[in-house]
Amino acid sequence: MPTDPESRPAVPSRRRLLQGGAVATGAAAAAALAPAAAAHAAGPASGGRWPLGKGRFRTRLVLLGTAGGPVPNADRFGISTALVVGDRTYLFDAGRGSVSQYVRAGLEFKRLRGMFVTHLHADHTADLFQYLLLGLVSPDGDALVPPIDLYGPGRAGALPPQWGKPRPTPNVNPDNPTPGLKDLFADSLDGFAYHFNILGREANMPDPSKFLRIHEIDVSGTGANPIDDLAPKMAPIKLFSDGTITVETILVSHGLVFPAFAYRVTTPDGVVVFSGDTGYNENLIAFSRGADVLVHEAVSVGYYKDKGSDEAFIKHLEEGHTDVVKVGEVAARAGVGTLVLSHLGPARSDMVSDREWRKGARTHFKGDLVVGRDLMNIGVRHHRHHNH
User: Fold this and answer.
1) In angstroms, rounded to a whole number, what is the distance separating the alpha carbons of residues 188 and 296?
2) Does residue 130 sit within a domain?
3) 358 near 369, Cβ under 8 Å?
4) Tens digit of pLDDT for each residue in 81-120?
5) Using CA atoms, how far apart are residues 191 and 6, in angstroms rounded to an integer?
6) How many Cα neighbours within 13 Å face the side chain of 243?
């Protein structure tokens, strides 16, 4: 398994990194995978390229961060996954450390063509604006190329009743207490105006407002609402197609959060589904049917119960997330080829080991299984589906 990225020496430059160095971590991680999944994983060649051929994949997943929750830890960075298809890269969520991990993985900003956000919890968005903040200029010529499509939640519209024991609820930004993706970027641009305006004069930084096409996903036709029907049964919503991939989405049930999305991506080499944060629900099972790879969040409810966590937190885990045993059931019912466990909670391996994660998922799922680790590369290919 890869060593903790935070413990590695600092990388002198992005150019040097892209010429080799840290990209070897993906190969090391792949070699450590269980035999059932080893055929799907391989490390990139030097320079971050993935030529076709034995052990190489035109389409691959790069697990930039695999931690669940807004709690920093030494084992894993925040949840973020890159999907690389040929010379194009697409990002799904951007938690803590996503930008640094993107560079460490040997990925190039100029290849980034789309970004997709499952929901607006900070552990999924902490680095989202940083791609714009840090990716516009570069001494080695690797900078973002507009336009980049960004998809995610709009304004929720209302706050739901509170869970847990009665206590004062903070009311942040009372004029707009449920901001959406466009608000997040507009307010962040305003807050960093001095940075952008100064660098526009010192370094000829381009206008940051021209780089992203932000699309807030319209769920008005689904019958959903933010109070008592957050993820009704629904047909997938078609979002995006660029001639390389197509992306669809559905609502999933993530506690009090609205809207919360899963994404299904059809590539030339197979179908990948990202669960986002979700409780066990039929929407996601139907949505994942026959996928070649399912990247699914996983929590260990038993661990937190054994530690005596309070009732409200356990309710949050049981209703807003999916215990690892149930994750295996989701994958089995959907008949997916490979299950990748990510967004792990707890994220520290001294709390729940990879062996324990694997054992829990194996209760129901007998297909290829990967316990996610940061900077792991997983090749995507069409899978011969079986009834797991």
Assistant:
1) 30
2) yes
3) yes
4) 999 999 999 999 999 999 999 999 999 999 999 999 999 9
5) 28
6) 3
The sign of the dihedral angle between the CA atoms of 270, 276, 279, 281 is negative
How much is the pLDDT for 167? 65
**Per-residue pLDDT averaged across 222-231, rounded?**
95
CATH of the domain at 26: 3.60.15.10
Residue at 282 is within a domain:
yes
d(CA 106, CA 346): 28
User: According to the model, what pLDDT value does residue 158 have?
Assistant: 93
DSSP 210: G
What single string gives the DSSP state of each residue in 144-208?
A: --S-EEEEE-----SPPPPPSS--PPP--STTSSS--HHHHHHHHHHHTHHHHHHHHHHS----G
First to last CA, the chain: 27
User: What is d(CA 240, CA 71) in angstroms, rounded to the nearest whole number?
Assistant: 32
- Domain for residue 62, yes or no? yes
How many domains are contained in the chain? Answer: 1
Q: How distant, in Å, are the alpha carbons of 3, 182, 317 from that of 30?
A: 13, 37, 30
* Cβ atoms of 75 and 347 closer than 8 Å: yes
Residue among 60, 67, 53, 54 nearest 26 (CA) = 60
Query: What strands lie across the sheet with 80-85, from one edge to the other?
Result: 212-216, 148-152, 112-116, 88-92, 80-85, 59-65, 376-379
- Measured in whole angstroms, how far is the alpha carbon of residue 292 from the centre of its chain? 17
Residue 200 domain-assigned? Answer: no
Count of CA atoms in the C-beta half-sphere (13 A) of 320:
20
- Domain hosting 85: range is 10-156+209-379
